[in-house]
Write a structure and sequence with these properties.
Elements lengths: L33 E2 L2 E2 H10 L3 H15 L8 E4 L4 H12 L5 E6 L6 H12 L3 E5 L3 H14 L4 H17 L4 E4 L3 H5 L16 H5 L12 H4 L3 H6 L4 E4 H4 L4 H11 L23 H13 L3 H11 L5 H11 L8 H8 L3 H10 L8
Parallel strand pairs: 3-4, 4-5, 6-7
Antiparallel strand pairs: 1-2
The structure holds zinc ion.
The site of zinc ion has 8 residues, from strand 2 and helix 1.
């Protein structure tokens, strides 16, 4: 495949593909908006700096006071992956806010050894985790969505939102605390940016590219919310930590390393710019490579854009990093991918080719 340098894109494509003038977010990012060439992620970052965080945190304290169990029962569900952010959230809820979290882990496709180890380390710090296994059904669904839409971990993305809500219902727990409300934070729909509670009707719209998993009755348990489910879940609050506290991944990393046993991966993935984000599974690298084929950006664009906003890297340096990493295919995992989807390499690359954006690639 011919590698396109998206920084020197020819002029007639610039109307379609351009980058935020502050960070590197691209105009092709789903649901992003721009004002005077600045992306909604950057604009919201500025806006978030003016939030009264003390007051937001006290809202959380009040909520905890209202729902805290005094009989030893679990009183809040926290979806966890064994990584820095969810470990941090669970840790603060337990140790600072004296809640009793029931953690829910949904196994991703192609989980790594370091991912398993980090989850075990987290569990050893006295957290109760319900582990949901990756099944053949998950794999069949992922294969289907990979072929049809270029979404290789779609059933997992659905489960990590839906399973915690359904488990909360089952255990009669009224609060579910997710991590960051990524839509407004990184450049997407703004509707939820100042709402404490997330509207469950928007799960498919925000997180599943409007492609909810509803073609199979069997997929219902932790994969699909219908209208009746949404009604049943109405007294459960779907919350995001990023509403209550300034979101700083580096700080989360520090705390998770110190108190939750989090370890870095020994290797940096081929298209990653660090050794600590999304180290729990091999499929994320493919998911982001497909974003490159579909939209012309991958993890280096996303990760450096966050770093630019935090002023931890200059835009110039971020451009160099992105030029170096964004287009890289995670070739070290090719055998894992083919085995997982039960296809040969020729069919695998055929699928990638089908999802290539014709406006960006020749
Ligand atoms: Zn931006």
């Amino acid at each position: 495949m011919k590698i396109i340098n998206f920084f020197n894109i020819n002029y007639n494509k610039r109307k379609y593909f351009y980058r935020c003038k502050r960070c590197l977010v691209t105009s092709t990012r789903p649901r992003v908006t721009f004002k005077k060439n600045i992306c909604s992620g950057c604009l919201n970052y500025e806006e978030r700096k003016r939030i009264n965080w003390k007051q937001r945190y006290s809202e959380l304290q009040k909520l905890c006071d209202q729902y805290r169990s005094h009989s030893g029962k679990y009183d809040i569900v926290v979806p966890v992956g064994g990584g820095k952010d969810s470990s941090y959230v669970a840790w603060v809820l337990k140790n600072n806010l004296r809640m009793n979290p029931l953690c829910v882990f949904v196994e991703p496709p192609l989980m790594t050894k370091i991912g398993k180890k980090n989850l075990d380390n987290f569990e050893k710090k006295a957290f109760k985790i319900i582990r949901i296994k990756h099944t053949n059904l998950n794999r069949d669904l992922n294969s289907y969505y990979f072929k049809e839409f270029g979404l290789p971990q779609h059933s997992w993305l659905a489960s990590i939102k839906i399973a915690p809500l359904k488990i909360a219902k089952k255990h009669n727990i009224k609060l579910v605390m997710f991590g960051e409300e990524g839509e407004s934070m990184y450049g997407g729909i703004n509707k939820n940016k100042n709402e404490m509670e997330f509207d469950k009707k928007n799960i498919a719209k925000y997180y599943l590219e409007m492609k909810p998993l509803n073609f199979s009755k069997k997929s219902k348990k932790y994969l699909y919310l219908d209208k009746k489910d949404i009604k049943d879940l109405k007294d459960i609050k779907m919350l995001y930590w990023s509403y209550f506290e300034e979101w700083d991944e580096n700080f989360h990393l520090k705390i998770a390393r110190k108190y939750c046993g989090l370890k870095n991966s020994h290797i940096r993935e081929k298209n990653a710019i660090n050794r600590h984000s999304h180290t729990d599974q091999k499929m994320f690298a493919l998911h982001m490579y497909l974003a490159y084929l579909k939209y012309g950006f991958s993890r280096a664009t996303s990760d450096t854009s966050i770093e630019i906003r935090h002023k931890r890297v200059t835009r110039e340096r971020a451009i160099n990093i992105t030029k170096k990493f964004d287009h890289i295919f995670p070739s070290n995992y090719i055998k894992d991918y083919c085995k997982y989807f039960k296809i040969d390499q020729k069919s695998f690359f055929g699928i990638l080719d089908n999802h290539k954006n014709k406006k960006l690639f020749h």
